[in-house]
Amino acid sequence: MKNKHKTHKSAAKRFKITGSGKVVHRSQRVRHLKAKKSKRQLRALKIDKPVEGRMKIKIKKLLGKA
C-alpha cells in the first residue's frame, strides 16, 4: 500500500487549480494603502494571476495534484 500525502494547508489557502490545470493566486499589494493607488491599478490587482514556470509544478505537488 502506498503512503498518502497530506495537502499543504497554507498552500491550499493561497493557490487554486483551475479546471484546465492552471495554478492561480491572488495579487499582492492590494490589502492596504489603497488611497495612493489608482482605480485602474486596483481593478487590475483584483484579478487572479497565473503561476508560471517551476513554481507551478512545486505548488501542484504541495496540493497533491501532480
UniProtKB/TrEMBL annotation:
Source taxon at top rank: Bacteria
Name the residue ranges with Basic residues bias: 1-16, 23-39
Q: Name one GO cellular component term.
A: ribosome
Give the GO molecular function terms. structural constituent of ribosome
Q: Which UniProt keywords apply?
A: Ribonucleoprotein, Ribosomal protein
For region Disordered, the annotated ranges are: 1-39
Q: Which GO terms describe its biological process?
A: translation
Does Secreted count among this protein's keywords? no
Query: So what family is this one in?
Result: Belongs to the bacterial ribosomal protein bL35 family.
Name the UniProt record assigns to this protein: Large ribosomal subunit protein bL35
